[in-house]
Design a protein that fits this description.
single chain; 254 residues; alpha/beta; TIM Barrel; eight-stranded parallel sheet; 9 helices; 17% strand; binds nickel (II) ion
Length: 254
C-alpha cells in the first residue's frame, strides 16, 4: 500500500474526473493521501475532500506565494480549521523566491507565524522551499523546527542541505523528479537519506514521473518513483512501500 503524502486533488486539473479517479485509488494500491492546502480556499477544499473520503486527510496552511492574503484573523481561521479531526499537518508553508512577489519579508513573516501555529497545535509542518535554502534553514533553526517536526516536501536542494534537514529530524519528500533524466541531484539526495526518513509524494497535478513527465500527475504514478528509490537503495519495491508508509503514518500521527 502506498501513502501519497502530498497531493492537490482540489485543483481544477481534476474537475473532469476527480470522483472517478479518487474512487480508483484503492484498487491501484494507493491507501492514503494527504491533500495539502496552499491558500485559504484550497485549505477549505482539502478539508472538504478529507471529510468525503475516508482515505484522504488534509493539511491546513498557506503557501508562500499566497502569503500576502494572511493576517491575524486568517491565522485564527487556520487555527480553527487545524482543530478539525481530519487535519494532520500545517502546510504547505515556507519560502519561494522563484517569483518576485510577495516580498521576501512577507513570506518570512508568515512562514514564521505558521511554524508557531504548528507548534501551538502540536502538528507537523509541510515545508515548501524553492530557491530559498539558506533563509529556510535559518528560520527553521530560529523556530526550533526540530521540536515541531515535519517534511521538506518536493525536495529540490543538494545532499548537503538534505543532511541539515535530516539533522533537524525532518523527513524528505521524494516525487517524480527523481525519475527525470536530469534528476541526478535528487538521486544523490535519496542516496544520503536513510530509508526511514523518506516520504513518497506526487504534488499532483504537477511533477509527473517518467514516462509521464509533463502530463497531469496523480497518485497512481507513484510506483515509478518507488521503482527508482528501490533501485538506488538496492532494496525491493515492497520494502520501499512498506517503510515509507510507516514513515508517513509516524509523521502525520495516523
Ligand atoms: Ni504542493
Amino acid at each position: 500500500m502506498i501513502f501519497d503524502t502530498h497531493a492537490h486533488y482540489d485543483d481544477e486539473a481534476f474537475d473532469e474526473d476527480r470522483e472517478a479517479l479518487l474512487a480508483s485509488m484503492k484498487d491501484a494500491g494507493i491507501g492514503c493521501i494527504v491533500n495539502v492546502g496552499a491558500n485559504l480556499e484550497t485549505t477549505r477544499n482539502s478539508l472538504d475532500l478529507a471529510h468525503r473520503y475516508d482515505f484522504v486527510y488534509a493539511a491546513v496552511g498557506v503557501h508562500p506565494s499566497d502569503s500576502a492574503e494572511l493576517n491575524e484573523d486568517n491565522i485564527e481561521l487556520l487555527r480553527e480549521w487545524s482543530e478539525d479531526g481530519r487535519c494532520v499537518a500545517i502546510g504547505e508553508i515556507g519560502l519561494d523566491y522563484h517569483w518576485p512577489e510577495p516580498s521576501r519579508d512577507i513570506q518570512k513573516k508568515w512562514f514564521r507565524r505558521q511554524l508557531d501555529l504548528a507548534r501551538e497545535q502540536r502538528l507537523p509542518v509541510i515545508i515548501h522551499s524553492r530557491e530559498a535554502a539558506e533563509d529556510t534553514i535559518n528560520i527553521m533553526k530560529e523556530a526550533h523546527a526540530e521540536e515541531i517536526g515535519g517534511v521538506v516536501h518536493c525536495f529540490s536542494y543538494s545532499a548537503e542541505i538534505a543532511k541539515i534537514c535530516l539533522n533537524m529530524g525532518f523527513y524528505i519528500g521524494i516525487g517524480g523528479v527523481v525519475t527525470f533524466k536530469n534528476g541526478r541531484k535528487m538521486r544523490e539526495v535519496v542516496e544520503v537519506t536513510p530509508m526511514d526518513r523518506i516520504l513518497l509524494e506526487t504534488d499532483c497535478p504537477y511533477l509527473a514521473p517518467e514516462p509521464y513527465r509533463g502530463k497531469r500527475n496523480n497518485s497512481t504514478y507513484i510506483p515509478y518513483v518507488v521503482e527508482e528509490i528501490a533501485r538506488i537503495k538496492g532494496i525491493s519495491k515492497e520494502e520501499v512501500e512498506r517503510i515509507t508508509l510507516e514513515n508517513a503514518k509516524n509523521m502525520y500521527g495516523i
